[in-house]
Automatic annotation (TrEMBL):
Residue ranges occupied by any JmjC domain in the UniProt entry: 64-221
GO molecular function: 2-oxoglutarate-dependent dioxygenase activity; metal ion binding
Gene3D superfamilies xref list: 50S ribosomal protein L16 arginine hydroxylase, Chain A, Domain 2, Cupin
Pfam families noted in UniProt: JmjC_2, WHD_ROXA
Classification via SMART domains: JmjC
Assigned keywords, A-Z: Dioxygenase, Iron, Metal-binding, Oxidoreductase
Keyword field contains Endoplasmic reticulum: no
UniProt superkingdom: Bacteria
Cofactor: Fe(2+)
Protein name per Swiss-Prot or TrEMBL: JmjC domain-containing protein
Length: 383
């Protein structure tokens, strides 16, 4: 599934619009058909393990109800929206929408949120701190978006619903099936439903300084590194010092921290763990059927079965000076250098074909790795 770039190229989009200003791409997905039905969206919202919310607005009386949503019977035919996060984890057809933006680094994609909205519905004018491509499915919605403004203040219209005051739009268009609007961070925007609609929001993530520092601190503690202590072997006596700590000592303290962060091995391992950690629940059974390595080898070599990666399972590869690591859902697997072709397949492809398995499972280390990944539920046997 690829975007039909008509008036601009991918590179022009990156140069002129990405994280800079909103744009509407008309008929971007030609002959677009909704990959999920309204009743399926409603069904997900009824599940306790799914992040969902119902937003209603009648006479400027806004209300937010968090899932699970027990019933939709009393809502009427207008003024309400249902928003369900992480639908790409549960519906292969929705997951495939991510391919439309595969020119953006994969680790930046967070999830695909699906919204079902009735006429006059929306969540009001608001800001997001992340990039988003919103694909229009059935129905029509009017989208207005303004210039990026990091100074705009949001107020809590009701609990868990932040909004901004009205803004001057630089984009004001009605979207129909297959149209896409891209909205960068801190661009105020508002979508109002004209005809009952489904939208697919491909949201991106960008770690904040707080998240990085907090996560790295946890990594340092868990890894039992960062044990070097402050030293002042060149201490000088200063009877006129006004501050508790002088500038030299201050710099030494900063170096203690920056030396740890600047250690590429430590920081890259931390990022590989953090960026592959699942942000939402995965579609993995509570009890995964366990297989021996011998069973899997016999199965694959005596059949045409493939294996598929579970939607939402993130992977990465780290190649250090003397080690090669494969990361899957924040777990590190130390690999041999001759496994690189296999772990690249695992990282780059959703499906590993039977032919590829027969080639790669001639190595004991690859057999052991795939056995672990299948038994943990991260990959499943097709059929």
């Amino acid at each position: 599934m690829n975007i039909n770039w008509q008036t601009i190229s991918k590179q022009e989009f990156i140069t002129e619009y990405w994280q800079k200003k909103p744009i509407v791409l008309k008929n971007a997905l030609v002959n677009f058909q909704d990959p999920i039905a309204p009743d399926e969206v409603a069904g997900l919202a009824m599940e306790s393990f799914i992040d969902s919310r119902l937003v209603t607005n009648k006479n400027d009386d806004w209300k937010v109800t968090h899932g699970p949503i027990e019933s939709f019977d009393q809502l009427g035919e207008s003024n309400w929206s249902l928003l369900v996060q992480g639908v790409d984890r549960w519906f292969e057809s929705v997951f495939d929408l991510r391919e439309a933006v595969n020119f953006i680094p994969k680790w930046r994609i967070d999830d695909v949120m699906v919204s079902y909205s009735t006429p006059n519905a929306g969540v009001g004018s608001h800001l997001d701190q992340y990039d988003v491509f919103i694909v229009q499915g059935q129905g029509k919605r009017r989208w207005r978006a303004g210039a990026v403004n990091t100074q705009l203040q949001q107020t809590e219209k009701t609990k868990d619903l932040l909004q901004v005051d009205e803004f001057d739009p630089i984009v004001d268009q009605v979207l129909e099936a297959g149209d896409i609007i891209y909205i960068p961070p801190f661009s105020p925007h508002n979508g109002e439903t004209i005809e009952t609609a489904i939208n697919y929001s491909i949201g991106f993530r960008a770690p904040s300084q707080q998240e990085l520092i907090s996560g790295f601190a946890d990594f340092v503690i868990d890894s039992e590194i960062g044990l070097t202590r402050f030293k002042d072997t060149d201490l000088s006596i200063d009877k006129n010092a006004d501050s508790l700590i002088n500038k030299t000592q201050l710099k030494q303290m900063q170096l203690l921290l920056t030396d740890l962060i600047n250690n590429d091995g430590h920081f890259e391992k931390f990022l590989n763990q953090g960026l592959t950690a699942p942000s939402r629940e995965l579609d993995i059974p509570e009890e995964v059927e366990q297989h021996t390595s011998d069973y899997l080898v016999n199965l694959f070599f005596n059949s045409n079965l493939n294996i598929n990666k579970v939607n939402g399972v993130e992977t990465s590869i780290y190649r250090g000076d003397n080690t090669t690591s494969f990361f899957c859902c924040a777990e590190e697997f130390i690999c041999e250098s001759h496994q690189i072709d296999f772990i690249r397949l695992l990282h780059q492809q959703k499906t590993i074909t039977n032919e590829q398995l027969k080639t790669e499972l001639k190595l004991l280390e690859n057999i052991q790795l795939i056995t672990t990944l299948v038994n943990q539920g991260y990959w499943y046997i097709e059929g």
